[in-house]
Amino acid sequence: MMSKLRLQKEQEVLAAHMPPNMYFFADMNTRYPYVKMAAMTNSGKVYTLKIHLEFFPEEVPMVEVINPIRDVHGKLLDKISGPMHVIGSYDGHTLICHYSAFSWTPQESIYKIYIKCRLWLEMYEEHLATGYPIDAFLKHQE
Question: Beta 86-90 vs 93-96: how paired, if at all?
């Protein structure tokens, strides 16, 4: 569970980079804390990200895209797919890959997770425009 000091620091970073209406922390005193964040792509489309904070910052948090995420053929992206950087689904929502367990450190911030997920969303829209998998634009980390 995230300490109060860490939560305060994360909130300060988000407040410095994002308007307050683009994110909110919820259930922070429960077993299932999370932050929901709005992510607007360059095309103007707005997606909602839910970052699970149960084990943050010690472990890589799950990130759900609340909007339905479908591939270029209209198929729901709810299964593990390396080329699409999808790690499955949770509650019917696509889970996107943003960090591997090997590259994760507890010093990573919620804001950096948000930036990486926003990049994923941009590449997802490129997938929809071109038909190429996300991996054609966004390589996996070593």
Answer: antiparallel
Cα(140)–Cα(142) distance, rounded to whole angstroms? 6
Tokens (6 digits) for 61 = 């948090």
Euclidean distance between CA atoms 55 and 111, whole angstroms? 16
| Domain spanning 4-136, CATH class | alpha beta
H or E stretch covering 78 = none
Q: Where are the domains of the chain?
A: 4-136
pLDDT confidence bin for 130, thresholds 50/70/90: very high
On whether the CB atoms of residues 106 and 57 are closer than 8 A, the answer is yes
Residue range 26-66, pLDDT digits in tens: 999 999 999 999 999 999 999 999 999 999 999 999 999 99
Q: Which residue has the tokens 């997802």?
A: 124
Give the position of tokens 């305060």: 8
